[in-house]
Amino acid sequence: MLDERRIEMLLAVAEHGSFTRAAAALSFTPSAISQQMGLLERDAGAVLFERSPRGVRITEAGDALLLHAEAIRRHLLDARAEVAGITKARGGRLAFGSFPTATATIAAPAIATFHRRHEEVDLQLLDGEPYESAARLHSRELDLALIFSLDNWPAAMDYEGNLVAREDEIEMLPLFDDPFLLLLPESHRLAAAGEEVKLADLAEERIIGSPVGCAPWGMDLEHICAEAGVELMFQATYRSADFQAQQALVASGLGISLLPRLAASALRADVVIRPLMNAPVRHVALAWPTGAYRSPAVKSMIEVIEAIAGDLRFQA
Amino acid sequence: MLDERRIEMLLAVAEHGSFTRAAAALSFTPSAISQQMGLLERDAGAVLFERSPRGVRITEAGDALLLHAEAIRRHLLDARAEVAGITKARGGRLAFGSFPTATATIAAPAIATFHRRHEEVDLQLLDGEPYESAARLHSRELDLALIFSLDNWPAAMDYEGNLVAREDEIEMLPLFDDPFLLLLPESHRLAAAGEEVKLADLAEERIIGSPVGCAPWGMDLEHICAEAGVELMFQATYRSADFQAQQALVASGLGISLLPRLAASALRADVVIRPLMNAPVRHVALAWPTGAYRSPAVKSMIEVIEAIAGDLRFQA
DNA sequence: ACATGCTGTAAGCATCGCTTCACACGCCCC
DNA sequence: GGGGCGTGTGAAGCGATGCTTACAGCATGT
């Protein structure tokens, strides 16, 4: 029972909620899935699925089995990577995750450096929000990822508040804190150099944020500022997760915006950035699955990124 | 790769250090083992064994695979038990471990009570030293075990100082402390009721302990007493791990002994026991594998034993 | 009432994995 | 030095496993 093939089948069935769709996803016939899942039920001595004319639903017993199937799948992937790492000592595959603003400033130069050092490693970059990367680390789709967390927002929490991985399943190495900066049109009253701007100074301003549910900066900045006792007026109509678009909106005088320093590399000429006192920060970190084997490639990439992050921190 | 069958084969090969002996242990032909391990090596893309005319030695890569194989095996066992527990809700199997002195006073009445309540459960008792039970919990040979630790001696440490399980792999529920009592011949100067005996009063006495390496009381009492600043004279010639034998030696006037209170249920007429001030104690606890599914049978047994242990503590 | 989409069963065929038998190799003892 | 005795390995054969194809049963929705 719980052969490697059955594990894949069980996971596919759980994901798609139907033998037929699982079969399609795995390039099998529905009959094969039905037979294997039937045998699995016989071996386990329990009903694992509630059959219905529109698919199947996992029972409690099936769900218990599913959790172990996922764990075993992780062990199999780890075992393979580990053995490959031991024998080849170098080379192999490195799947690396990053989030958009870090991809430009950290991941890109890191990949360039890493590739120069280890041409033989098959390097793969997968961009995504931190919680997506966290889920992919947990499922071993990624070996290493750049992520960030906010003070009240763990990296493994998606934008609806669900945790995609337990805290002890992801190990993290803090790199630096990335503060939010103020993005202003050049003619703005706060744009003139002078005293540092406080969060409370923005109470009258209209803030252009991200669409709720798209990225945490819009939604979560509201929370952070609310906790700091400041109620910001977020623009309801003009929202965008794209920094270029946000800059355009700001330049047009439709409001001001907060943007992470990492995103402030490519600025338009008609906007200015100003630091903010006690600004909220994104805690940028490197993450990998707890307990997983760290191949030489992973260790090397960690060193490369630590060096780049050190330079960034020094500039700040 | 790492099919359930291959896992058993790999574990057997690692245990016996030979394809042939592993085959004998699993009732296979050596050829079957050789073929499967060959395929495993091909799948893993690495040499897992160093062949020699007297058997095989696991390589580093093989050892890495072995660790994952053990973990997967645990998941499979847990998954089975969990599913069985969910569907049957009651019944199934309960493998219970105990150490000798607790078997008589706790495990026996607990088993009697449990059996009355759950006739349908296939209950199994496996006596052994705490570190043996700890190892069996870790490998899922046991579901639950009575164990004890000393102040400087974890339950999972064998009598040569090796840990058979990491601390976080075994979860423990402390039950009570079992103090060592003084066992004296009836004519002994300390046998008369009077002031409580102190450890220091025994400095002149000849102590009859257990053979070193057999049980912790002999060896570890020396350490405990040495740390308390008392150097006891352990009898070199007369040593036994059997309490009846120890009593006979004591009754014959060859020395005195320390015995756990749990072992003091069946005393000869010509010996007496006396309490000891600041006596060393065995911390008796219930243990089960961390993270494993606790079936209704296990939970019920925990309750039964807690009740019995509560009575024992009350008597003390 | 029919079509659709799902699961489940039966028959056929390829593959997998065991056993048996045979062999090559290193070690030890005579 | 040669013959046991141990080891791991390979080829042939046979049964079991697991896929495909084809078809049946059943609920739903048009």
Could you walk me through the main structural features you see in this protein, from its secondary elements to its overall organization?
The structure is a homodimer of 316-residue chains. In chain A, 42% of the residues lie in helices and 20% in strands. Chain A is an alpha/beta fold. In chain A, the strands form three sheets. In chain A, strands 3, 4, 5, 6, 9, 10 and 11 form a seven-stranded mixed β-sheet that branches. The first copy, chain A, has a two-stranded antiparallel sheet with strand order 1-2. In chain A, strands 7-8 form a two-stranded parallel ribbon. The longest helix of chain A has 29 residues, at 60-88. Chain A is globular, with a radius of gyration of 24 Å. Chain A starts with a helix and ends with a helix. Chain A binds chain B through residues 1-4, 44-47, 60-61, 64-65, 68-69, 71-72, 75-76, 78-80, 82-84, 86-87, 293, and chain B through 1-4, 44-47, 60-61, 64-65, 68-69, 71-72, 75-76, 78-80, 82-84, 86-87, 293. Chain A binds a DNA duplex (30 and 30 nucleotides) through helix 3.
